[in-house]
Specification:
The protein is mainly beta and 113 residues long. It is built from one helix and seven strands, in the order E-E-E-E-H-E-E-E. 4% of the residues lie in helices and 52% in strands.
Length: 113
């Protein structure tokens, strides 16, 4: 009898083993934002954003953002990837109370640096 289980999660959920953070800017805001990637959302990879952050006022579900992903191997290695906002879920209790989980879906790599 075979005891090895098959991985049921999609490939995107393993992205946190390749990248540790994302960086992006939003039109209308004067800053570049950087967030740690997390694999805590029921829907896959996400970032946590404070409730009062201007980022939450400028993004919505299905937005496409050109994000820079930082490699876990070395901070010098980055990949630019078009990323879709999958969900924005406010956390009213628990570890991330006062934040929203912003679910991300990788769509297309633009190139590496």
């Amino acid at each position: 009898m075979e005891t090895q289980q098959t991985e049921r999660r999609s490939e995107q959920r393993n992205i946190t083993e390749i990248y540790y953070s994302v960086e992006f800017s939003i039109k209308g805001l004067n800053y570049i934002y950087q967030f740690k990637l997390r694999d805590i959302s029921q829907n896959g990879m996400c970032i946590t954003v404070k409730e009062n952050s201007p980022v939450l006022q400028h993004i919505k579900v299905n937005d496409l953002l050109d994000m820079k992903y930082y490699s876990v191997e070395t901070a010098d290695k980055t990949d630019k990837i078009i990323t879709k906002i999958k969900h924005i879920t406010k956390q009213e209790q628990g570890r991330f109370q006062g934040h929203s989980l912003v679910g991300l879906e990788i769509l297309k790599k633009n190139g590496a640096r």
